[in-house]
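Reminder: ligand-aware prediction takes two inputs, not one.
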Amino acid sequence: MRMATVETLPPPDLTPPDIAPAATPVTAGPPADQAGGILTVDLAAIEHNWRLIGRRATPSECAAVVKADAYGCGLEQVAARLARAGCKTFFVADLEEARRLRAVAAESAIYVLNGLLPGTASAFAETRARPVIGSLVELAEWDAFCAAQAWRGGAALHVDTGMNRLGISANEAAALAPRIRAENHGITLLMSHLACADQPEHPLNDRQIRLFREVRLLYRGIPSSLAASSGVFLGNTTHCDMVRPGIALYGGNPTPGHSNPMRPAVRLDAHVLQVRHVGKSEAIGYGAVWTARHASRIAVIAVGYGDGYLRAASSTDEAPGADAIVAGKRCPIAGRISMDLAAVDITALPENAVRRGDLVTLIGDEITVDDLANKAGTISYEVLTNLSRRYHRVYRV
Ligand SMILES: *Cc1c(COP(=O)(O)O)cnc(C)c1O
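Here is what comes back for the chain with pyridoxal-5'-phosphate:
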C-alpha cells in the first residue's frame, strides 16, 4: 500500500532555481484557461513606438508617460522595458505610481504630473520623485520643504498656456523667472501642455506654442517640454528639449483622421462560454434591445464592461456596436454588453466553426484600439485605461 502511494507522487522538480529572476514577470493574472479574457501586451512594439517617436523628435529627449498603469498595459513591465531601451525620464500621475516605478527604474527621473497634494513633499523626497508644480501655493510648499531639508531633488514648473487645467500663468512664470539665476533654484524642467494637439488646424495650438516660446526665453538654460503624442506630429516647433508621449507608445493613433504611424501593442481575446441558437424575433440580453432578424447563432463570451469592455460599444436594433473577429471573420456584438458577458452574432460563420472554449478577438487583427473606442463613442485612452486586471496577461518580449 505504502509503495503504491509513493509511486503516485509527482517526480521531484529538478529545474535549477532562478539565480537572477526576471525583474518583471511575463505573465500576470489568473491562468489563461481560467480567465474570461486574455490580454497580450507587446513590449517590443512599445519599445519600437518609443524609438519611432524619439527619431521623429530628434534631437529632443524622448521621455515616456506611464501614468494609469502605463495606460492599462502594466507600469512595471512597460517602464522596465523602456528604461532598458534607454529612456531616462518618466511621467506618472501620482506618488503611488512613482513608488511602483522607482522599484523597477532606480536611476530614472520620475515626474509626478499631478504635483503636490498638501503635506506630501517628504514622500516625494523618499521616492526621489519630482513634482510637476502647477500652482504658486504648491511651489511655496515645495520650496519650504526643500529649504528645511536641504533637498535638491528637482521639480518641473508647469506653465498654463491655454488649457486652464494645471499650471501657473505665463505672467506668474515671468515674475518668477529671475529665480533661475539663483544657484539652487530647483527647477529641472519647464513644461506646458497642448489642449488641441490632435486637431492640427485648431488655432489654440499656435497660441500655446507662441506663448510657451516667450516663457522659455525667460527660462533660458532650463530644459523645456511641450509635446505629448499628438504634439510631436505638429512639427518641430513643439519638440523643445523633451517630448512626453503616452498614447502613441501603446499603439493609439496620435494623428486622428490619418493612418496610424504606430505599431499596435495590445491584443484582447475572449473565451467563448457557449454557442446558442435563437429563433427569428427573439431578443438577446438586458433590455431586449437587439432582436434576431432570422434564426441566429450567438457566441456568448466571458468579457463585459466589468472587464473594461465598454458598455457603450453595445449593439441595438437601431445602432450597431463593436465587432469581434471570430474564426477569422468580423462578427457583430449582439445586444447590450453585460458586466461579465457579451454576445456575438456568429450566424454568418459555418456551423461548428466556433466551439465552447474558443477565443474570439476583441482588440487585434483588423480591430484597433481606436476602432473599438470609436464604436463606444470614446477615445483609445479610455479603452486602454479600463483594461481589466481580471484578464490573464501575456507580455510579449
Ligand atoms: C497624459 C499627459 C501626457 C501624455 O499624453 P498623450 O496624449 O497620451 O501622449 C503628456 N503630458 C501631460 C501633462 C499629460 O497629462
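Residues 65, 67, 113, 193, 228-230, 244-248 surround pyridoxal-5'-phosphate (CB under 6 Å). The longest strand covers residues 266-278. We will return to this case in the review session.
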